[in-house]
Write a structure and sequence with these properties.
Distance between the termini: 40 Å
Strand order of the largest sheet: 3-4-2-1-5-6
Low-confidence stretches: 4-9
Helix content: 40-55%
Strand content: 5-15%
Mean pLDDT: 90
Structural class: alpha/beta
Number of helices: 11
Number of strands: 6
Largest sheet: 6 strands, parallel
Length: 267
């Protein structure tokens, strides 16, 4: 049996994915991959379809990417699903559709998440989402809470600046119960570690790799604190066309890079 076939049998990847995976260093995979899922609207436009058709097709991209990441034992995957700005700048008909699509996705995918030992959670101002959506989110989170494999985080009603504002508000509130803000500053306790502990992602490692689809060269207010030293990979592939093999190609590119963290590269 070829090495590629062995990888396919071991991980459940299809042949194309297995071929790419066979070239990876399985001991040095990213611990945390974060993806900016972009291009649904352009995908639909090129096909003369309404924008919602792009969002609907993007669900299959989510399924393929999530399953592939879990099968190769990526510990954490975060998907930028819905931003704070989406509420303000998208038509109500589109945001309402996205909320219904989220509920449908959760109803359909919990069984698959459990099958792949994936634990689901969320970051963002989720308390501002419609009550029925929050209820379905809680149901899906509870239904996968026993799983011990990959942590899948959906960023919903998320914005990095909002996250930082919420973190600082939390720090001030905590300080008010423990000697006040002046006491906190006197202790020189307002450091990077303190801020990180109050972020939505305090339980996750910072992303090693950020992937952006659709070719756009920007972070779009996504995990701005956490991606300070992340490697960034941009693909022209629009999100509805993104699949597990594209994820593996991004990891292959990541493994070619030398991460310096502000230091000096190898001679």
């Amino acid at each position: 049996m070829s090495q590629t076939a062995k990888h396919a049998m071991t991980t459940g990847l299809d042949r194309k994915e297995a071929e790419i995976y066979a070239r990876l260093d399985a001991k040095h995979l990213p611990r945390h991959i974060a993806i900016i899922m972009d291009g649904n609207g352009r995908w639909a436009k090129t096909r003369h379809l309404p924008r919602i058709a792009g969002h609907r097709s993007g669900v299959e991209a989510v399924r393929s990417t999530v399953e592939t990441a879990a099968r190769i034992d990526i510990p954490s995957l975060t998907l930028y699903a819905f931003s704070v700005e989406n509420w303000k700048r998208r038509p109500k008909t589109e945001t309402s559709f996205l909320m219904r699509l989220l509920v449908k996705y959760l109803e359909m995918e919990v069984e698959t998440l459990n099958k792949n030992n994936i634990r689901l959670q969320y970051i963002g101002r989720v308390w501002e989402l419609p009550d029925d959506v929050q209820k379905k989110m809680k149901w899906a989170e509870d239904a996968t809470s026993h799983n011990s494999g990959m942590v899948l985080t959906l960023a919903l009603n998320y914005g990095a600046r909002s996250e930082l504002a919420d973190a600082f508000r939390s720090i001030v509130q905590q300080a008010s119960k423990n000697g006040g803000l002046a006491h906190l500053l006197e202790k020189d306790a307002m450091d990077e570690e303190t801020i990180s502990k109050h972020l939505y992602t305090s339980h996750l490692p910072d992303p090693d790799l950020v992937i952006r689809t659709s070719g756009e060269m920007r972070l779009s207010n996504f995990l701005l604190w956490q991606v300070a030293y992340s490697e960034i990979y941009v693909t022209e592939t629009l999100w509805p066309d993104f699949r597990g093999r594209h994820l593996l190609e991004a990891i292959a590119d990541y493994q070619k890079r030398e991460r310096r963290y502000g230091g000096i590269g190898k001679a």
